[in-house]
Task: inverse folding
């Protein structure tokens, strides 16, 4: 319920309540009207509209003019590309529980172009299956210079956020990323992990992250289930 003594703004509390009710299946196709929500939670129309606006921006809800606000049937995880975030943070913002399963880690082979991008002779790779509420959504492959990879290997990579380790434990600032998004056919092994048919097309994201001195820190390749993940960006027309 809404707690007026809670320092968290009312519209954010209401956003969490609505998202939780959707997740529990209390609302099937659409949420109650603004008036119903105002009466139920004893809040203003402005609070209701701000809460709904957050959920629309996150892709949880869709407003249909003249008909109401419906539960979105688009993929459950939405990532905005205007900032650099970990997959863990993205999943948490959607009100879901992130998870990781370490598939492989160690010295990588046959990655000459990645060693050139990272400006290192030996590349260390970390490969993980990522989940949201236990459902597989992505396979991530992180590539680092050997010395960074070996330091990361000292931590439990199934329970920690790699970007938090890099910044908070290793003292490496992640400042800028150049990203490429495309569509690729998934391998039989990756298809098995993602629980999709072999030969399926998936969303592919490649990213090079640099620090404040523009030194390359990480090359990242990930494959996302297109039925579970969507990339979003907001742009303005230049005049």
Result:
């Amino acid at each position: 319920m809404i707690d007026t003594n809670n320092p968290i703004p009312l519209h954010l509390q209401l956003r969490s309540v609505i998202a939780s009710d959707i997740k529990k299946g209390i609302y099937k196709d659409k949420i109650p009207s603004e008036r119903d929500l105002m009466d139920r939670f004893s809040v203003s129309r402005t609070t209701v509209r701000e809460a709904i606006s957050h959920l629309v921006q996150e892709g949880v809800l869709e407003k249909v003019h003249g008909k109401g606000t419906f539960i979105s049937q688009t993929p459950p995880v939405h990532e905005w590309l205007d900032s650099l975030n970990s997959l863990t943070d993205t999943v948490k913002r959607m009100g879901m529980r992130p998870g990781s399963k370490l598939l492989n880690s160690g010295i990588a082979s046959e990655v000459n172009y990645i060693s050139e991008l990272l400006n290192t002779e030996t590349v260390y790779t970390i490969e993980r299956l990522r989940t949201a509420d236990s459902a597989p959504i992505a396979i991530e492959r992180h590539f680092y210079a050997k010395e960074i990879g070996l330091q990361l290997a000292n931590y439990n990579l199934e329970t920690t956020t790699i970007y938090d380790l890099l910044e908070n434990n290793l003292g490496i600032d992640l400042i800028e990323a150049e990203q490429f998004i495309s569509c690729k056919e998934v391998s039989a092994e990756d298809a098995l992990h993602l629980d999709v048919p072999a030969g399926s097309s998936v969303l592919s994201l490649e990213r090079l992250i640099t620090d404040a001195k523009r030194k390359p820190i990480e090359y990242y390749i990930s494959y996302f289930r297109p039925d579970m993940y969507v990339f979003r960006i907001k742009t303005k027309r230049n005049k």
